[in-house]
Amino acid sequence: MEHIRTTKVEQVKLLDRFSTSNKSLTGTLYLTATHLLFIDAHQKETWILHHHIASVEKLALTTSGCPLVIQCKNFRTVHFIVPRERDCHDIYNSLLQLSKQAKYEDLYAFSYNPKQNDAERLRGWELIDLAEEYKRMGVPNSNWQLSDANREYKICETYPRELYVPRIASKPIIVGSSKFRSKGRFPVLSYYHQSKEAAICRCSQPLSGFSARCLEDEHLLQAISKANPANRYMYVMDTRPRLNAMANRAAGKGYENEDNYSNIRFQFVGIENIHVMRSSLQKLLEVNGTKGLSVNDFYSGLESSGWLRHIKAVMDAAIFLAKAIAAESASVLVHCSDGWDRTSQVCSLGSLLLDPYYRTIRGFMVLIEKDWISFGHKFSERCGHLDGDPKEVSPVFTQFLECVWHLTEQFPQAFEFNEAFLLQIHEHIHSCQFGNFIGNCQKEREELKLKEKTYSLWPFLLDDQKKYLNPLYSSQSQKSAVLEPNTVSFNFKFWRNMYHQFDRTLHPRQSVFNIIMNMNEQNKQLEKDIKDLESQIKQRKTKQTDGILSKELLNSVRPESPALKATLSLKEQALLPVNNVLRTIEGSSPADNRYSEYADEFSKAEPAVVSLEYGVARMTC
Amino acid sequence: MTWGDQALFIQRTPCCAEVPAWWVQLHAFSVQGLFGKNSEQLTNSSSGLELEGSVRGRRVESPTDNTEELWLLHSNIDAIDKRFVGPLGTIIIKCKDFRIIQLDIPGMEECLNIASSIEALSTLDSITLMYPFFYRPMFEVIEDGWHSFLPEQEFELYSSTISEWRLSYVNKEFSVCPSYPPAVIVPKAIDDDALRKVATFRHGGRFPVLSYYHKKNGMVIMRSGQPLTGTNGRRCKEDEKLINATLRAGKRGYIIDTRPLNIAQQARAKGGGFEQEAHYPQWRRIHKSIDRYHILQESLIKLVESCNDQTQNMDRWLSKLEASNWLTHIKEILTTACLAAQCLDREGASILIHGTEGTDSTLQVTSLAQIILEPRSRTIRGFEALIEREWLQAGHPFQQRCAQSAYCNSKQKWESPVFLLFLDCVWQILRQFPCSFEFNENFLIMLFEHAYASQFGTFLGNNESERCKLKLQQKTMSLWSWVNRPSELSKFTNPLFEANNLVIWPSVAPQSLQLWEGIFLRWNRSSKYLDEAYEEMVNIIEYNKELQAKVNLLRRQLAELETEDGVQESP
């Protein structure tokens, strides 16, 4: 590729991210068309996909070389020291180019080839079928129907072609309403709760300004409430803080006036906008990356970043939504400004709380396809896939995943999938390795011909399903239950395994989860073994009784070969070490944990004091 | 909380009338904690009088009259508040295990009477009037816990490997050091006379003794009180000789002083001090800063207060969690313990650890270092031995430190959650190495509860000398007698345990440390789903064992059939 000037640099140092004393590994850095690769002296490989790179920074030259700091979107941070400035400069420039592509066609997905034929690829794309999903929910039905109004993306470019609306809402009403909504995103069905007959609908803000009205929009809302025979009142949730919504009125936008709409209950829920979220995450990452971080700095940083406060706000909104449906059988219309960020968060989380299907591996994929991909969450802009406006980047989807993680912590048996599944999805919204998250809406994706040129992520995750299963999942106990999480502040914790997923020294050294997961697998194998053995014994026994009856006849049968016995006992031995492999203790070295570095007063205190570094005592005088 | 027919009474139980009652028994149709949360198990019992093992508030549900009973040991009561609204009185009982119970009692007089009774009964002056002296076990004692961990036996474990050490009875009458046990392990080269001299040079007579012997390299951890150098730099040749006796030729040792240098320097003015380089040239001193006394108690008070506030927003919660400094203390203690373990295991150096008295932070560090280094201390039995050796025998003043808990108003200097911090540190390591411990979280919680309020005599008194005078062995039951019964042990056993002989190095980064929810949020959150998940995990493990056993059995059967066949078939 034309951007790569240097493909290999030797004697590069990879610094320990948290060490205050420049502990490092030396190795070789390779630059490929898709990845940056570092191989250390122990042949341990660190692969960094160019698309994962969020920023590259060249720091001031030091005596040992030129420092290069790379921060990734999957929260990996690497700090290299390249011996020669020239090499460093070349790599820096190459990475700048490679990590920010100008055109979609240059993204990895368009060159990634997992050796599948076209039929397989197509089948992969057809794995998740949203029409099927609406059928599962129970639509179309007597109150809801499929509308062809947006079949050619004429009414709303950022919506999918297939939209479900109340049966009594005629096309002129829909068209009229769409003209009164920001970006034409008029109210449509997101989730239908069959037993409560209540619906989650979504849209963007109305163009109400200070006093504008739209009869069609009012009619459409009324149609939504009429489509629910159980409760004629419906909630309208504006997920923005009240002040933001009011400020929008000056720009001719705003929120629904309760006086103009019959039977609505209007509610603000106060989730901040994408810019607040972006800088909140930025602050969080700054705190986390601090070397020699103290407990107090960690918690005050966590507080001032506001990150957990935002997570709680999203969760509270989803709970409000789920309660309205579960407890009051009321339909809910959710919107924010454009209806593709906060609205997606709240609708999808709300559905997840209500419907156990979305807590399965497949159901979760469907949920993401429906509320995020098809309804036009701008993945490419929010994840910064292309070199674009950095102000459009925001961790909205990451927050959604974090909310789901918090739910898995509170309800350890309610989800079929585990944390690794969430982390893997997070990895791929940024990787651009698969086509699912490329582009900002369905129309754009069709234009890019993603289904012909790229692969879908979901079949690959399903193939690997074993890795993502929650061993404690119980499909019975909480299957039908609506999850009612408790959002008292102390239930929200810092998600170490997301924001420090590559900082292994901070993780627990033994994973209960992995052990149980493998034990589950082992149990399945054992069950099979028992069946095999039992049938073998049965065979033998019948053979024996037969044998007694016709002993003479069987005399010719050869006795069981010792070889079979040997394989049996081998198997027995092979079963047990599985545990041992799992229970090895990672990172068990004092040096990894920097005990001595945490003692700040300790080297300055007085001359004869000793400082211990990497297990080597050194005088500091 | 509503009390159906508000019958609260203080029952005089289980024996004679002239001794005080130790239990508050509450009868009601519905019993709820202040936050509508009750995690303890409901036990079906018609008598409601089973005292066995029910230290903490225990609910007993009687199937006959549909009432529930809650039993609360008076000594578990940390503070009580009363309030009156018209004729309705309210008593709020705050327990040492952080639980809060609210009782609504109509009738001011009755309410006052009850309150003053509880107040009087929960603050007994004399130890000998406390419940352990009257408690009669309802279980069969299989093994007398008072004799489970004798120093001689503990020394026996070592004696094959350590020839340079001996068991000394110099403190037989508690005359050399009142807070030491009668038997201590010291270097063989040092005779009892020298020990007596060293004792005069160390705070509280706490001369350096062996705390831990690292079999891997023969290095040791010793602990002591601070040296009494005073302002004029007093020295003691015997002291120097004693600790030097633990060094191999040409080797250096480390002295870990748990105080920051400036505090250690200030201590000189009061006759204390630290080891001067000039007099201990073979030793390198490291100062750490582990807090003590009321600083820790205040930290606990702040933390518990914040955990009990369900209404606070995220910012307030995080800032209060930070302001409590609890996790900072955890980090500091763990880091010091890890550093000590690192010196021992990786540097191959012996260590002497002390702070001021050598009864608090010193013991936190010596015992945690052993958890890290010594696989045996991660078993149930080994951990009990560790508590016995490094806390009880070593003279941690439990009576003083655990007199009051997070709700007390008295704020005495000697009250301090030193032991709870130690347990929390163990929990943090357990979280990081969930398969390396034979015991589970419940075991640590149980020890916390019994350290503060118990029907057993184990944690009474401040040291061996006091325990001897109280004749605890004769007059009370040992906690270990109860715990080490198979029926109890099963509750405290970690199903994931698989013994390993490794040194386990925990992470001490703030991102790796967590609030111990099992203690601090225990009464404030529902643990239903977590408990169910835990049960499911246990089921999977049990099922795995079952299957393994079955597979092995079937294989044997098959093999037998095969040999039979062979016998039959061979002519």
From TrEMBL, chain A:
This is Myotubularin related protein 6. Substrate binds at N273, I274, C336, S337, D338, G339, W340, D341, R342. Residues 516-543 form a coiled coil. The active site is at C336. GO terms for cellular component: cytoplasm; nuclear envelope. It comes from Bos indicus x Bos taurus. GO terms for molecular function: phosphatidylinositol-3,5-bisphosphate phosphatase activity; phosphatidylinositol-3-phosphate phosphatase activity. The keyword RNA-binding does not apply. InterPro entries: MTMR6_PH-GRAM, Myotubularin, Myotubularin-like_Pase_dom, PH-GRAM_MTMR6-9, PH-like_dom_sf, Prot-tyrosine_phosphatase-like, Tyr_Pase_AS, Tyr_Pase_cat. Transmembrane segments: none annotated. Keywords: Coiled coil, Hydrolase, Lipid metabolism. One of its GO terms (biological process) is phosphatidylinositol dephosphorylation. Residues 124-499 form the Myotubularin phosphatase domain. The gene is MTMR6. The keyword Ion transport does not apply.
From TrEMBL, chain B:
The keyword DNA-binding does not apply. The keyword Coiled coil applies. SUPFAM superfamilies: (Phosphotyrosine protein) phosphatases II (SSF52799), PH domain-like (SSF50729). Residues 145-520 form the Myotubularin phosphatase domain. Pfam families: Myotub-related, PH-GRAM_MTMR6-like. Residues 530-564 form a coiled coil. Keywords: Coiled coil. Belongs to the protein-tyrosine phosphatase family. Non-receptor class myotubularin subfamily. This is Myotubularin related protein 9. It comes from Bos taurus. The lineage of its organism: Eukaryota, Metazoa, Chordata, Craniata, Vertebrata. The gene is MTMR9.
